[in-house]
């Protein structure tokens, strides 16, 4: 719990209200009051119902699509800035639009850089987020970024499973660094899936680099969107003789028929955090809360103390 005399104020964007309430509870405080006015054309206007003058303000909200979630964060940042808040921290457990971190084809936007510019222009003086899709997004900001790793909350759960012959897997080449980081702490082997896509969200082929026969496999990734990659990887590993396949994904986007793909796949379990609220509960999905991690880091930010102890990767 922070020790500074002036307690910070915590506010929530509507899409993350449950997570924000849990963070506030861990922080031993309550959320500030916000009133949102709606117009008939879909426009909305959030307004703080209490003074934030001279205070540190934490605004909590994941910016997963649709774009209203990002817009709400921007409006609340701007409102805090114009209400003379001293420090304004955007707490974004899931940083949306992060897959657009580079020009991977001609005549496209770099969406992650655009969002970074918007957040800073709106008034954010600090960003706290977790498991960015690409680490280099931190460099898009001119303000401090606290980039947390979900391994902090997932590692105790993995160890509690007490799995023999554990192997960590990456569902693609891009996630190999994350897989090696987990394997280092767990002293396990690593396998990597090599996939090719016809287009976004559609796999044309997948091959396995490494041996999974007789192994309990845990796939690790930063997000799960349509679920196609993980379902395909799990089925392939079971065909190659794996004893079980689990997956750890920080951000459960789970769009389209992802829930059905997970239920019908060879996955024993999908472990996710609560950065994005689930649309429905299923027997295969286990949620591990990130609220204690964010509350602890926010307290350290308020007290100007080191957060390096929270980094496992």
TrEMBL record:
CDD domains associated with the record: PRTases_typeI
Enzyme Commission designation: 2.7.6.1
EC primary class: transferase
Ribose-phosphate pyrophosphokinase N-terminal domain sequence ranges: 9-123
CC per GO annotation: cytoplasm; ribose phosphate diphosphokinase complex
Enzymatic reactions: D-ribose 5-phosphate + ATP = 5-phospho-alpha-D-ribose 1-diphosphate + AMP + H(+)
GO biological process, one term: ribonucleoside monophosphate biosynthetic process
InterPro entries in UniProt: PRib_PP_synth_CS, Pribosyltran_N, PRTase-like, PRTase_dom, Rib-P_diPkinase
Gene3D superfamilies (alphabetical): 3.40.50.2020
Molecular function via GO: ATP binding; kinase activity; magnesium ion binding; ribose phosphate diphosphokinase activity
Keywords noted in UniProt: ATP-binding, Cytoplasm, Kinase, Magnesium, Metal-binding, Nucleotide biosynthesis, Nucleotide-binding, Transferase
Cross-referenced NCBIfam families: PRK01259.1, ribP_PPkin
Name of this protein: ribose-phosphate diphosphokinase
């Amino acid at each position: 719990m922070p020790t500074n005399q002036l307690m910070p104020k915590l506010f929530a964007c509507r899409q993350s209200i449950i997570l924000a309430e849990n963070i506030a509870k861990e922080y031993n405080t309550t959320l500030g009051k916000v009133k949102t006015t709606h117009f008939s054309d879909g426009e909305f206007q959030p307004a703080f119902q209490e003074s934030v003058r001279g205070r540190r303000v934490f605004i909590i909200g994941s910016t997963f699509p649709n774009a209203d979630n990002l817009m709400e964060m921007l409006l609340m940042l701007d409102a805090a800035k114009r209400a003379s808040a001293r420090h304004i921290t955007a707490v974004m457990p899931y940083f949306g639009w992060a897959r657009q971190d580079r020009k991977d084809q001609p005549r496209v936007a770099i969406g992650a850089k655009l969002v970074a510019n918007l957040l800073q222009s709106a008034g954010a003086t600090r960003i706290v987020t977790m498991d960015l899709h690409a680490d280099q997004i931190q460099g898009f900001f001119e303000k401090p970024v606290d980039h947390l790793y979900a391994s902090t909350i997932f590692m105790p759960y993995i160890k509690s499973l007490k799995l023999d012959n554990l192997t960590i897997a990456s569902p693609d080449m891009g996630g190999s660094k994350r897989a090696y980081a987990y394997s280092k702490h767990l002293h396990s082997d690593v396998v990597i899936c090599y996939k090719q896509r016809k287009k976004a969200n559609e796999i044309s082929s997948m091959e396995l680099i490494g041996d999974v026969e007789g192994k309990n496999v845990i796939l690790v990734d930063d997000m799960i969107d349509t679920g196609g990659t993980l379902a395909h990887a799990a089925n392939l590993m079971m065909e190659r003789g794996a004893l079980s396949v689990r997956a750890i994904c920080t951000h459960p986007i789970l769009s389209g028929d992802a829930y059905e793909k997970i239920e019908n796949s060879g996955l024993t379990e999908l472990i996710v955090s609560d950065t994005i609220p689930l649309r429905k509960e299923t027997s295969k999905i286990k949620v591990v809360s990130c609220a204690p991690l964010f509350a602890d880091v926010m307290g350290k930010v308020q007290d100007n103390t080191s957060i390096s102890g929270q980094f496992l990767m």
